[in-house]
Amino acid sequence: MVRRWHGGPRRSLRRWRRQKKDASEPSDHALGRSHGGFSTKIHLLCDDQGHPLACHLTGGQTHEAAALVELLVHADETVVDEHGRRVAWPRKLAGDKGYRAAWIDELLLKLGITPVIPSKKDESPKARRQRGLPFDRNAYRQRNVIERLVGRLKECRRILTRFEKTARNYHAMLTLAFIRYYLMLGAKAF
Description:
The protein has helices at residues 13-16, 68-78, 102-110, 125-131, 137-141, 144-153, 157-161, 167-189; strands at 32-34, 37-46, 52-59, 92-94, 114-116. The chain is α+β, with helices and mostly antiparallel strands. The protein has one domain (25-189): 2-Layer Sandwich (Nucleotidyltransferase, domain 5), CATH 3.30.420. It has a three-stranded antiparallel β-sheet. The radius of gyration is 22 Å and the shape is globular.
């Protein structure tokens, strides 16, 4: 026999269950479909020694260039001393061909940063000449520094496999990985 409750007014589930709203949390939790599957892209900014300065998370389907402005804004806000003055600011920014766009060159030059981004294969020779920026191959070869930083981050299993549901918690794990890196760097100095 199945009993049914008929008494009392119907109560809304919203009243009983709390809705957590976080303004800093993206609606997609920085998860998205890409060629590699369901993933998150970590956009990193580091100095010439491979020390992480800033990071930004997006879904896997998001283009790299879409996060560049957010990454630079985040670096401008966080890489400061106790008086609010900038501690580090890039003189050159090396990126792969995904960052090749005229608006990125203009933005970086306006900020006082020299772009070190190769031309795309499908770009015409006329467009390459009109760009007006010489390509610095030696500076571009130093881009492996960021690849080594990504390799060090992948040593942390939580970063590699993303156990966290929310982007906020995953960003916190990235921050802990950065802190661990800086602590190990300081221990080597002694």
